[in-house]
Amino acid sequence: MVSIVYFSFEFSAGGGGSLPVFAGAESRGAFLGMVRRLDSGLSELLHSGRGGRSVFSLKPLRFLSGYSVVESGPSVGGVVFERGARCSLEVAVFDEEASRRLVSILATSPLGLEVNGVEFGLVGLSIRIIDPSSVISGEDAVEALDVRFLTPTYFNPLRGDQGYKVLYPDPEHLFASLVAVAHDLTGQGFPKPSELAEKVYVSGLEIRTPRMEASKPAPNGFTGWVRLRFKKDASTSDKKMIAGLLRLGEITNVGGNRTAGYGVISVSVPMVGSNKAGEGSRSEAR
Question: What 3-state DSSP class applies to 35?
């Protein structure tokens, strides 16, 4: 079994500037650049992965203070930040060697990020060690779950033409992503994604995909929310397993391109009578 080592960084901007609202590629580049300054071999391991598998995922830069969102026409243009603006970056590492080396360089020579020519100084760092098996097995049985897709998300097709991505929260593709990560981390066997998908149905949905313009690249993914409600024949163990896998997905992200901050999710249990995610919902009991 592989433990997840979870790094939560907080930075302060050394100058003003701007970033896209979704700065996944910029966050990955800045993080790998920070690591490369002290350990180029580790940066290469993080970039290339091991055995065809990614060894980390990240949650992109998120500004906490000293910023404003600038709109451009009907779509969101970007984030403008000032000197001293605070932001966070979260990285989950799934490889023992990579985790050990990253802890070592951060302990001896903590560095900041450089993003679009602006230096961000490190002002806070916390490190947690997470047992993935405990995450998966630690959830209660509930009747429904709301899953919010906070950053662009896509799934690689399970069959057919791999050139076309799945741009909606199909339960089988969602569970396939979660089961693959859970198996890699724990070595445990899990039901087939199709079998898990048979235990739920979609009872609420609101998603959107970014507007594509020929001259402006856009993230290839959807955001929004889906409500997954358990069918009558779902057992208590089915409910606990699916809830646990989704809780693991909050840590690891889901879908493709997780190293660039795609597939960040949050999971909650809807309150009775609520019709939309976030309206009268509560965090799931641990």
Answer: helix
CA distance 275 to 227: 9
Give the model's pLDDT for residue 286. 34
- The total domain count for the chain is 2
For 212, the domain range is 132-283
Q: What share of the chain is helix, strand, coil (3-state, %, to 5)?
A: 30, 40, 35
Tell which of 83, 114, 130 closes a domain. Answer: 130
CA distance 124 to 218: 31
Shared domain for 124 and 220, answered yes or no, is: no
Q: Same domain for 125 and 136? A: no
Contact 256, 173 (CB under 8 A): no
Above 60 in pLDDT, residue 214? no
Pick the range with the lowest mean pLDDT from 35-39, 189-193, 206-210, 271-275.
271-275
End-to-end Cα distance, the chain: 22
Decide: helix, strand or coil at residue 146.
strand
Task: Scan for tokens 């609202």, then name that residue.
Answer: 21
Distance CA 139, CA 163 (A): 36
pLDDT tens for each residue of 113-124: 999 999 999 999
Q: Where are the alpha helices (DSSP H) in the chain?
A: 24-36, 40-48, 96-108, 132-137, 171-186, 193-197, 236-252
Residues 126, 141, single domain; the answer is no
